[in-house]
């Protein structure tokens, strides 16, 4: 798991799947707004002229020298909901990210977002 103090160190590091296949480059980390713990990362994927940011959960992620290993295969991550490299995740699109990975989505009691970019 990536600890909040380590977040800045892992930006621009390779993100790899369990078999070590490169998925992309870690762009940003999103924290759970209820706990302020890292929950998701955006991974920059695609061709240099057509890049996008896909979301991947950080539960059970491990770090190594120059990489972050996530427990999801490359195909699953690449098919995840995505945003443009200059876009932000809309509140109404958060649930789709959680659904893609089979995770429960729980907004705040007053409908607050579950994710916040750090």
Report what the structure shows.
This protein is mostly beta strands and 118 residues long. The protein has helices spanning 7-10, 74-78, 94-100, and strands spanning 14-16, 22-32, 38-47, 50-57, 62-64, 67-69, 82-84, 115-117. Strands 1, 2, 3, 4, 5, 6, 7 and 8 form an eight-stranded mixed beta sheet that branches. The longest helix has 7 residues, at 94-100. The radius of gyration is 13 Å and the shape is globular.
Determine the strand fraction and express it as a percent band.
Answer: 35-45%
SSE-based structural type: mainly beta
DSSP helix count?
A: 3
Rg for CA atoms: 13 Å
Distance between the termini: 16 Å
Low-confidence stretches: none
Helix content: 10-25%
Oligomer: single chain
Average pLDDT score: 88
- SS elements, strand count: 8
Topology:
Blueprint: H1 7-10, E1 14-16, E2 22-32, E3 38-47, E4 50-57, E5 62-64, E6 67-69, H2 74-78, E7 82-84, H3 94-100, E8 115-117
Parallel strand pairs: 1-6
Antiparallel strand pairs: 1-2, 2-3, 2-8, 3-4, 4-7, 5-6
Short summary of the structure?
Helices cover 14% and strands 37% of the residues. With 118 residues, it is mostly beta strands.
What are the defining features of this structure?
PRC-brl_dom; 3 helices; 8 strands; 118 residues; PRC_barrel-like_sf
């Amino acid at each position: 798991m990536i600890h909040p103090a380590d977040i800045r160190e892992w930006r621009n590091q390779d993100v790899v799947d369990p078999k070590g296949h490169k998925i992309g480059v870690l762009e940003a980390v999103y924290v759970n707004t209820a706990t302020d713990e890292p929950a998701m990362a955006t991974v920059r994927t695609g061709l240099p002229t057509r890049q996008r940011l896909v979301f991947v959960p950080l539960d059970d992620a491990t770090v190594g020298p120059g990489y972050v290993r996530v427990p999801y295969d490359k195909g699953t991550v690449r098919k995840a909901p995505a945003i443009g490299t200059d876009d932000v995740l809309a509140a109404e699109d958060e649930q789709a990210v959680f659904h893609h990975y089979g995770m429960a989505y729980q907004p705040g009691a007053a409908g607050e977002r579950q994710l916040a970019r750090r």
